[in-house]
């Protein structure tokens, strides 16, 4: 496998973006990434378009996105991995370069979630588990899936609603300083606790929003980076990748995400590091409980101590690991594919 | 870019309505879902029984049921009925409801340990979800949901009222 570096990144403004189509939204990120890398469309050999899709009118978004961005003949390969779609696009682009298939690849993550109403969006998201055995019978929304984890985690470890709220408070502190975030303001624990229930025990502020957004990254081989005279690439040391059952009833328990544990082990092993070496992390905080479980499953703190970890400020700047300094999905916006790109790139 | 930001006090939220929009030509999906290989399960729900499958070759039990065993490669499975009692492992009450469920009162989705497997169902006859606890014992049954013309699994608390 060849060394692979990220040489350019771009992001759209996240939020309710009723002003643009999915192509126009993707272009905002693509243009910024190309400019950042100092490259043009002709330098890109293949485009990987990550889009969970199904909420936008354009059901096959990859080709329209490529065409609009001016490289219709370069790929595309469309990838989907539900809420990890952006990471999956980057993993594919990385492997395309690492394997020698191409020297320069573009990974795009784009999601338009606000073209349909909230009830429709929940019905689409709920199908992210298993339609036939779960949604069909019981109307399992995605907030409900994570609420099932929250209830179990609270019962088993005494994790409190206040500790969950602290995750939102921390992430809003950084979202307030991120000009591309959907929610650029700070909140208090009280604001979170008093927000309306979505899927008890999760309340509105425990949940990331329904967001439109796009991100793009240009990845290149070591040779290409040298030829382009780029002296500040971000090398990808390792990627770990794993999943779990679609039926939540078949999972081992409801206090941990096995996929996170497995993917983290892979990434740590390949990078030759341990959890204690990590100083900064972007983790999947689609719901506050998800970030608490991520502290534990990534090995930053032992299982069950995630609530205490945030309470002690260990996941903030000055603590053991500074987590989600972008504002995370909670603050920056929950466009499924747009901004999950640091999750596995430890 | 025409960026109109909605402001609530000092709260800056990105909501860019931009120019006008048009409506798409609507598309309606109504999928035909094959149940031929799991028919016993669907018949069982009508009779108040809950079935899983067990691989005759290696003994693996599947719930939800499946007719092929990926571990030993056998497709020779038998149906086994699950017990009518279980223990709550977790639950939530859904207040923000998805399309197709808008007309229901906020409903409680629960997962119970039933014998060797876990079963999802709606926990019914509960007013206050805060009084329900993980570890509570439940009795399993099935209930007809007229709106969707389907039977679902329902749980009721065995030893308490909430």
Plain-language structure description:
The complex is a heterodimer of chains A (346) and B (162). Chain A has 346 residues and is α/β, with parallel strands linked by helices. Chain A is 38% helix and 14% strand. Chain A has helices at 22-37, 62-69, 85-98, 118-126, 131-138, 142-157, 161-175, 189-194, 222-227, 258-271, 288-297, 306-311, 328-332, and strands at 4-11, 16-17, 46-50, 77-79, 104-111, 183-184, 197-200, 202-203, 213-221, 234-235, 280-281, 322-323. In chain A, β7 (197-200) and β8 form a beta hairpin. In chain A, α1 packs across α2 and α7 (161-175) packs across α11. With 162 residues, chain B is mostly beta strands. Chain B folds into two domains: 32-81, no CATH class; 83-162, OB fold (Dihydrolipoamide Acetyltransferase, E2P) (Beta Barrel), CATH 2.40.50. Chain B is 5% helix and 38% strand. Chain B is built from one helix and eleven strands; from the N terminus they run βββαββββββββ. Chain B is extended. The model of chain B is unreliable at 1-8 (pLDDT under 50). At the A-B interface, β2, α4, α5, α6 and β6 of A face β2, β3, β7, β8 and β9 of B. β6 of chain A pairs antiparallel with β2 (11-13) of chain B, so a sheet runs across the interface.
Summary, kept brief:
The complex is a heterodimer of chains A (about 350) and B (about 160). With about 350 residues, chain A is an alpha/beta fold. Chain A contains 13 helices and 12 strands.
Strand residue percentage of chain B:
35-45%
Instruction: Describe the sheet with the most strands of chain B.
Output: 5 strands, mixed, barrel
Helix-strand makeup class of chain A: alpha/beta
The quaternary structure here is heterodimer
The count of strands of chain A amounts to 12
As a whole number of angstroms, the C-alpha radius of gyration of chain A is 19 Å
Helix share bin of chain A = 25-40%
CATH class identity of the largest domain in chain B: Mainly Beta
In which range does the helix fraction of chain B lie? under 10%
CATH superfamily of the domain at 4-116 and 211-235 in chain A: Thiolase/Chalcone synthase
Gross geometry of chain B: extended
Low-confidence stretches of chain A: 337-346
What is the tally of helical segments of chain B?
A: 1
Widest β-sheet, arrangement of strands of chain A? 4-3-5-9-1-10
């Amino acid at each position: 496998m060849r060394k692979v570096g990220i040489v350019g990144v771009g992001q759209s403004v996240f939020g309710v973006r009723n002003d643009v189509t999915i192509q126009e939204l993707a272009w905002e990120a693509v243009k910024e990434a190309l400019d950042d890398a100092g490259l043009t469309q002709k330098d890109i050999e293949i485009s990987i378009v990550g889009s969970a899709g199904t909420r936008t009118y354009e059901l096959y978004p990859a080709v329209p996105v490529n065409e609009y961005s001016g490289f219709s003949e370069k790929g595309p390969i469309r990838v989907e991995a539900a809420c990890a779609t952006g990471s999956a696009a980057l993993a594919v682009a990385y492997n395309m370069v690492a394997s020698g298939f191409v020297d320069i690849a573009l990974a795009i993550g784009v999601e338009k979630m606000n073209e349909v109403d909230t009830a429709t969006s929940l019905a689409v998201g709920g199908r992210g588990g298993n339609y036939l055995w779960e949604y069909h019978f019981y109307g399992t929304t995605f907030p409900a899936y994570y609420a099932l984890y929250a209830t179990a985690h609270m019962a088993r470890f005494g994790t409190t609603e206040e500790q969950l709220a602290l995750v939102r408070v921390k992430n809003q502190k950084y979202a307030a300083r991120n000009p591309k975030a959907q929610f650029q303001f700070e909140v208090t624990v009280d604001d979170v606790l008093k927000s309306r229930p979505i899927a008890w025990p999760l309340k509105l502020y425990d949940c990331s929003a329904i967001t439109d957004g796009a991100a793009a990254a240009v990845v290149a081989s070591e040779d290409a980076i040298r030829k382009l005279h780029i002296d500040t690439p971000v090398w990808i040391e390792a990627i770990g990748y794993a999943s779990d059952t679609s039926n939540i009833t078949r999972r081992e328990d409801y206090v941990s995400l096995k996929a996170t544990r497995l993917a983290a082990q892979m990434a740590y092993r390949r990078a030759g590091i341990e959890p204690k070496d990590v100083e900064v992390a972007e983790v999947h905080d689609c719901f506050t409980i998800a970030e608490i479980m991520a502290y534990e499953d990534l090995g930053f703190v032992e299982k069950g101590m995630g609530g205490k970890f945030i309470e002690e400020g260990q996941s903030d700047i000055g603590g053991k690991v500074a987590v989600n300094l972008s504002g995370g999905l909670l603050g920056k916006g929950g466009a499924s594919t747009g901004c999950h790109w640091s999750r596995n790139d430890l | 870019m025409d960026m109109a930001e909605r402001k609530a006090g000092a709260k800056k939220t990105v909501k860019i309505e931009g120019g006008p929009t048009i409506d798409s030509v609507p598309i309606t999906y109504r999928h035909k879902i094959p149940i031929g290989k799991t028919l016993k399960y669907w018949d069982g729900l009508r009779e108040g029984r809950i079935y899983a499958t067990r691989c005759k070759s290696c003994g693996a039990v599947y719930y939800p049921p499946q007719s092929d065993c990926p571990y030993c490669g056998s497709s020779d499975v038998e149906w086994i009925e699950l017990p009518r009692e279980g223990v709550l492992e977790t639950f939530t009450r859904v207040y923000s409801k998805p399309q197709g469920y808008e007309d229901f009162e906020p409903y409680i989705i629960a997962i119970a340990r039933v014998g060797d497997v876990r079963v999802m169902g709606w926990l019914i006859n509960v007013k206050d979800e805060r009084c329900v606890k993980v570890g509570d014992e439940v009795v399993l049954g099935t209930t007809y949901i007229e709106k969707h013309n389907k039977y679902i699994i329902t749980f009721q608390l065995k030893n308490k009222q909430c």
